[in-house]
Amino acid sequence: MRTLTLKEVQKSKAILRKIAEKAITSQNLDYGKDNKNSLIFKNFSTSSSMGQAIYLSFSDGELLDLLRQEAKRLGHSPAQKEVFWIYRFYIRNRFQKWPYALEKAGLSRSAGKSGKTVEAMLEERQSYEYWLKKVKELALELERPPHAIEMPEACEALKRYFKTWAEVLRAAGVNRNWMRKKVVNRIPDLEEEYLLLLKDIQKKAIELGRAPLKVEINSDIRTKLRQRCGSWRNVLFQIGLEPVTKISPFSSSYLDEKDQIQNRPHKEILQDSLYRVLNLDQKARKYLVYLKKKAEELGRAPIKEEISKEIVQHLIVFCGTWSNTLYQIGYKPLRGDKLKAVKKENRKQIVRK
């Protein structure tokens, strides 16, 4: 797959936008689709290396915005045939099914002229944004992510857009970065009693090589510190630590009652979690420096197959998982289409060699 510079990506997207506008004006939304020798097909179709690179340069948000723009132009949720074919292919590839994409864009799944009007969808959009705002406000008030059970009205209003509470929190922007900035504060002049308790927490962290889980601390100590500091996250913040967090917290907390049978209790375990590792040996530190440099060269997170087995195995001994290894250097593992594209390109390179 060809690698494009930011300037090339911006230029290609601008050209594609003009082509799409021309196709709409001429009412020929399949313009260039059946001619594999056309510049449109060669440069933008996902069957070409160039087209695949441009497709991957579109974020989910950009593709969903395209759908919203078309809905505004048409006055209803766009059917596939009402969208320029390149954009149509990009959207369908990314979201698998057209109704899924419409739903994620906050549009009615009933597409075409018989679907809902833009006015009706606008009302729904306003309700959607209102409840996401309420979720974020409650998170700020509680100084933690709210649980679904604490916001039944929000669950009812948002279940048409999301399957799990984890998806709601992500859409509301209640994530690790937000919590790190918004729900912690340094408490000045802590009393000696609490300073001593914090030292006990610090010793436990050194022993474990990471921030301790709440269940790993005596309940009396934990209760006293939480009452004084406001939250467990803020307790740890006083000694320069962040709590162990799930990669996808609340991913089994379903919004629709018919799915509740699948719910699992929230457990504080290290499986599928992210945390800062405190007891790295010299070799692991050196390997992490190498891994970060590799990521910067690639412009993305490396996959395990691109790193020697010795390095991967040594880092996982300390970090537990590849996801948590990448977390140490500020990267997230590749998923979905981007992961498939990288693996496909790597296989091509092996064949060429």
Tag the structure with descriptive keywords.
single chain; mainly alpha; two-stranded antiparallel ribbon; 17 helices
Task: Note the beta-strand portion.
Answer: under 5%
Largest sheet: 2 strands, antiparallel
Helix run count: 17
Shape: flat
* Overall number of strands: 2
Helix content: 55-70%
Oligomer: single chain
Structural class: mainly alpha
Q: Radius of gyration over alpha carbons?
A: 24 Å
User: What distance lies between the first and last C-alpha atoms, to the nearest angstrom?
Assistant: 16 Å
What strand line-up does the widest sheet have?
Answer: 1-2
Kindly report the average pLDDT value. 86
Q: Structurally, how many domains make up the residues?
A: 4
Q: SSE order in H/E notation?
A: HHHHHHHHHHHHHEEHHHH
Instruction: Extract low-pLDDT stretches.
Output: 261-267
How does this model look, in words?
The chain has 353 residues and is an all-alpha fold. The chain folds into 4 domains: 99 residues; 64 residues, no CATH class; 60 residues, no CATH class; 73 residues. Helices cover 57% and strands 1% of the residues. It has 17 helices and 2 strands. Strands 1-2 form a two-stranded antiparallel sheet. Helix 4 packs across helix 5, helix 7 crosses helix 9 and helix 15 packs across helix 16. The longest helix has 25 residues. The radius of gyration is 24 Å and the shape is flat. 27% of the residues are buried.
